[in-house]
Amino acid sequence: MEETISLQELFTTLKKRLVLIIALTVIAVIIAGVVSYTLLTPIYQTSTQILVNQEQTEATQLTNQNIQTDLQLINTYSVIIKSPAILDQVAQQLDLGLTAEQLNSKITVSNAENSQVVNVSVEDADPAIAVDIANTTADVFQNEILELMSVDNVSILSPAMLKEDPTPIKPNPMLNMAIAAVIGLMLGVGIAFLLEYLDTTIKSDQDIEDVLGIPVLGMISPIEEKTDMQEAAKTSSKRRGA
Question: What's the predicted TM-score (pTM) here?
């Protein structure tokens, strides 16, 4: 016999285990909040912008061909910025005890499509250190590119600045708690249906029909058993009345 579950039974199960579902959701949100606010280290981000552009002289005018050449160089520059040739010098100048590989993991180089501006972003647990890394990397790159590629088409457009009250980019406690709430809700619903599936006790006449596969013809109402104390009390009351 194929078993089917009606929508009403689903809502009945959810209502029956509502306390469990709410409890798991709240616990998940609390755990996510505690971890986000106390255990995870805040990470700050800052960035500096580098402009790639040919130096204009009286004999050289800014043309589309020059711009396309600069755009093609940007991909090369992005690799050079994160290369040991640049980051080794950055590590020496800052003297933070960081290697070129560690600096590489903190730096992200990007640029908008068809843009001559290269964005160097740095993430660190200390916002002041992030600013120092970004600006030092840009300065070293600007100086070294003259020797590496014999070109002078790089200038710092916007250096990184330390804000008075920097805001970390991660973790995001509210987002983490929202995700935890969804996970806790799904877990609670899953456990609720699992408990209902594992509960094989017979609670109603419908359960009997489902198990035996035969209709219920009648039901016997529960009969309250009278104790000897109750019988004795009634007998004593009758005698007093007589």
Answer: 0.67
